[in-house]
Amino acid sequence: MNSRSNASRIKADTIVIGAGPAGLGAALALGDSAVVLESRETVGGLCRSLTLDGAIFDLGGHSFTSPHPAIRRLVFDALEMEEQNRDAWCWVNGEWVRYPFQQHFSELADSDFRHACQIGLEAASGWEAATNFDQYLDRRFGRGITELFMRPYNRKLWGADLTRLDTDWVTERVAEPFGSAENCMSSENGRRSPLQKESIIAYPAKGGYGEIFQALAQKVPDLRFGKCVTSIDPQTSTLRIASGETASWSRLISTLPLPALLRLISNVPDSIRAAVSALEALPITLVMLVLKGQHEAVRQRIYCPDENISGHKIVLNHNSSRWLRALPRHSVQVELSEFSPFSSGTNDTALVSAVVAGLLRMAVIPSPDYVRCTKVLRIPLGYPVQTHSRGDIVTLAQRWLSEHRIYTVGRFGEWAYINSDEALYRGHCLGTKLAMIESQAPCFV
């Protein structure tokens, strides 16, 4: 990776702010015409990996799948990837059921529960006309599936009021109640299909998930680290960096969260600032546990609706590749949203104790002594919440910004509940579009 020497003034046709998946995708499409400014000293954004006492963790549970053939080729050409069947499970009423629950509730031991799920599912109807996510769950899955898993799990993640969520995202995130464990992606229209029990997933053959973006970054001609943007002036097409440097641009691509981007711009209309301030983000807490030695549990993901167990999602990251399984230290990561009673107002020591107690109850670890060390990481922006007003707000902001040659892309740039491959794809599409415009216009001087 090249990094040009610092200068008091940077000039570029396109400045890209942020070297996460979307920013890297845009930069790869733009090539030499773009300069990427990254505030950290590494790439990947929320897809970074870290090493703790010999065990590797990702920020959240990541695996690579994509309905976009070009993005798959881009990643697989950049580094060696390993594919395997996804091994995901649900912990419901003290027993294991394969994921997704709505397709495998027949595995429940209790015949009354099985009957309630089946009868409710047969009576479910009208989900196409559901006006909110809570209503969608009842109409799509029926009372049994919804009350046993869907509603408690989603309340554990998104909070008690599920009516504040729209339904635009469910076809890509929530599996149908029927159907076989088909391939998780459909490339016919580029739309994501929900992950199934045996979906084929990929992961770097060596290292953590962040290795994907480290490899892609090697192909970016001009990527500059430690460049925190402090102000943007669309009138003069300049921006200022915390170090005192300035940059001139013809176009600006931002992967910053929309509210953070607008705070850097002085002349944003009050109506747009007020609208964007209503966007809702979900903070998450990650509890990372390094285990003594290797842990032979086969599961990769566990989804838990039980309110008495801390965390909604549990990741056994060492099962993501053969290389990770061979490490002398293995890892377990528990994800909690801000709505978990365990995450808010709980100190780290008490939080870790609650997490360990839950893992013991599920027999994910054999004893507390199996935990070698821990780390608690709090992420203020974990998930963009898909509220009913989100789409209109983002469109309003993007329209004004594009009039000033500023474009936003990525999970929080668009406030869209998308995975890393989709962010990479959208960034690459935006970069390709702007590159075509560049080829038809005079070069920036």
Describe the protein's topology:
Elements: E1 9-17, H1 21-30, E2 34-38, E3 49-52, E4 55-58, H2 69-78, E5 81-85, E6 88-92, E7 95-98, H3 101-104, H4 111-123, H5 133-158, H6 170-173, E8 200-204, H7 211-217, E9 223-225, E10 229-233, E11 238-241, E12 246-254, H8 258-263, H9 270-276, E13 281-291, E14 301-303, E15 313-315, H10 322-325, E16 330-337, H11 348-361, E17 371-384, H12 390-403, E18 406-408, H13 420-439
Parallel strand pairs: 1-2, 1-12, 2-9, 6-14, 12-18
Antiparallel strand pairs: 3-4, 5-8, 6-7, 10-11, 11-12, 13-16, 13-17, 14-15, 15-16
Helix pairs in contact: 1-13, 4-5, 9-12
Name the average pLDDT.
92
What's the name of the CATH homologous superfamily of the largest domain? FAD/NAD(P)-binding domain
Please estimate the helix content: 25-40%
Overall 3D shape: globular
Distance between the termini: 25 Å
Number of strands: 18
Beta-strand fraction estimate: 15-25%
Task: Specify the biggest β-sheet.
Answer: 7 strands, mixed
- Annotated CATH topology of the largest domain: FAD/NAD(P)-binding domain
At CATH level 2, the architecture of the largest domain is 3-Layer(bba) Sandwich
Low-confidence stretches: 1-7, 180-188
**Tally of helical segments:** 13
